[in-house]
User: What shape does this take?
Amino acid sequence: MTYFWETVDTIAPGLGWRHFGPFHLAVLAVFLLLGAVLCRGYCGMDTDKRRRWRRTVTLLLVADELFKDFGLLYGGNFSLDYLPLHLCSINIFIFLIVLHAWRRPKLLDTFLYFVCLPAACAALLFPTWAPLPPLNFMVIHSFTVHFLLALYPLALTLRGDMDPQPRAFPRCFALLAAMAVPIWFFNRAFGTNFMFLMRAGEGNPLKLFERFGSHLLGYPVLLAVVFAVMYLLLRVLGPKRVIGAWVLETFGVKLVMTWWSAIFATTVVIFPLMYRTVRGAFEAFDETLAYSGQTLGLSNTYIFWRIRMPCCRQGVLAGTVLAFARALGEYGATSMIAGYTPGKTATISTTVYQLWQTNNDALAYRWVAVNIVISAVVLLAVNMLERRDLLRDASRARRAKA
Assistant: This one.
């Protein structure tokens, strides 16, 4: 209990735990099992019990946040840095969880699913409280509060009590931006770092983007990735979604004649092309470079990302471009598995074919032009990236000679 009331600002170094180390993985495994049990239990409840379950989770979140404040005050460590202005704290105190549990506004369904759920999961996977020992009040609070923040929208989505709308995501993005602007000014005025708007700590995925100028460049990228992943999960985890008649009957997911069946068919078609190209690049890699790195004490992870991948990036890039071009022009597999339903399963290739079949050449030419423009933009971007890498390597070589 010696370090129970310490924080990351006061704790001595060397007392924490590693990201994805034994302790971290054990906690994640427990939460995964517990979350599955609680979600299953919630889905089997009647209306009144589900309402009480939602409000109980809300009260637990508020109590968890108050427990954190008590610990900070008791240990004499409370400061502006611990105000409830991080995104997860806002989700608790600014109507997102509390209002949703009692009033149920529709926009918050989308916000909780597309913003709150992935943010809480990201916090559990990349915790900023790793420098603290396992038996610490901030570790207990941070793990439990983010678990509850992820559990709430997940359980409601699985049961069908929450109906996230992908079309409302731009409004959620606007709401998130509206929160970020005053918080950024607050950070500038008081030297805080709420919502990681000023800097990204070690282990934060945003830190990867500092090499491009600023970690803030990672926000639009991560938002796009989050939207794509959560949208796909929404189609899989929804109450009327999921191998054959059993899947359709049990979970409501059709495996054919849907947009995701088109993605699956295209992936199967392009995978051999991508695999053979990338495999050739890795087979041509000079293994003596990896052996040299091992003699210097470098980890296999470091050797892969910093030595092997840079040497093979041209092959990986070539495979990506070839796979993209093949996917863009794919017709046979997608038309057989996904069919052609305008607005649902239609692709550019199937659309061009259908327009040609109906003698609508003018509109078909427009879609062909769209296809050409997309291909040109991708090729231009790839060539610019290759040129930048070549110029950077040449500059490094000149500096090394000097």
